[in-house]
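We now fix the convention by which a protein and its fold are recorded. The integers have meaning only within a learned vocabulary of local backbone shapes. The record below shows the convention in full.
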Amino acid sequence: MIADDEESIRNGIAHTLPWQDWGYEVCGLCSSGQEVLDRLAECRPDVVLSDIRMPGVDGVELMQRLNRDHPQIKIVILSGYSDFEYLNMSIKNRVTEYLLKPTDIDEFETVFRRLKTTLDHERVHNAEISESVQRHFEQWLGELLHGTAPAHDTERFLPLLNEKGIDLDNLVVVLFIMDGAGGSEKAALMHRWNRVLAAAEAQAPRELRRLLFLDGSDALIALYSSDSEIGREAVQQDVEAIQRAAETAAQATLSAGIGNLCTEPGMLPQAYEQANCCARQSVFSGPGSIFAFRQLTTERPENPVFFDTDRLEKALLAQDYDTIRAEVDRVLAAYDTPMREYQYLDRMCLSVLFHVSLWGLRYGVSMETVMRSMGTTYTDIYACDTLQKKRTFVLALLCAYQQELGRRRVQGHAAGSVAMRVREYVDAEYCSNILSLETVAAHVHKTPAYISRVFKNELGCNFSDYLTERRMRRAAECLRDPDAKVYAIAESCGYADTSNFIRVFKRFYGVSPAEYRTLQGGLA
């Protein structure tokens, strides 16, 4: 862009100099600094050549504002003033070149060829940086899904994720695997995955925002987000479009797994593992399948036996391994039949492990971290081909989780943390309709005012908010059972008055319990 208040000068510079031979194109002629600023978005210049003396926003103010707001733009000053004040001001505002009028064509050529070399080097360097940032961003995404992302990387990359329209508080994770690719060489497999990725990116979803990336050479991940509800049909349609694109572009058959709706960042590892487990269902159903975790957990046999998650939570907190073992044995015994159909039992076990993992986040204990220390993953349950092996697998995980939870509790008590004791008590008794700030205070031998300060200062919320959230999470889980009555759920969550429960639920989730159940069913 060329800025000079004298029309003859700016036209002469624009039309008499061989800009294309030097590698440039004149994208704008302006009579003032303000006009340059107004047209930046339109012209998007790499270089601004400006006079000093102009009406309104002059060259001095222009260089100051460009330096502050658009530091990537190179500034060349063309002026008849050679005094020290202007030169010094140019240096302070990172002016690339300072040309004195009159200037001959040779000097123009020297300056702008030198500047072109600088711009070319910077573009190569920026491209390398951009590629490096993208690699690190995708590595962070993988770590985020596995629950291992370092806090400093999350602080760095989360704004970039938000810029791409992905909201971790309203998210669905889909995982694609390539059927029949187990024996392929890694290089050939990566080549096919890259072709699949390119074809999938060319298929923009209609109603949702989507981010695609490869999870190593094993899977393609799709993150779906929206400003409103994420419905089953919109996700299903895009998944099918990606499957068709993969078949056309790379002759690849993809199976897909869809995790449950993720409503907070802490749920992301569970949503990823749910999608992973569902994608692996192609072993049973054949290539090109699509399964949602909600669908898997609702396809159930007659008279199924469920895990008592309240009982497990209390046993984990109490370090009561006998009760944990008894609960696992109670459920597994119901599936010890001559038919020995374990597919639904696998889903039941995965569901309870996901539940424990999400529940334990409030204590800083991650099931995924425990699994990594044991060298196992959720999907290893599929390799357990007998009831005894499945029992051993689940009990080993719950035992290791209990031990890690116990270590965290000891650390908390050693540090004199009343907050830990208070939270444990509330988590164990939140279903009681007589639970109050006063009963909690009496339990830990403190005053209600003290307990209130503990919640505010150490847990970051007030007592009533924490209790409500705990009850609402439990209520949402109960609503997944289509046979459970709302009044029974209200009572089991500590509400004697069903209408009050419905009001609190709607205030918390924005929809009534009945509407919530319908929406959750829509993601099946």
Observations:
- DSSP finds 24 helices and ten strands in the chain.
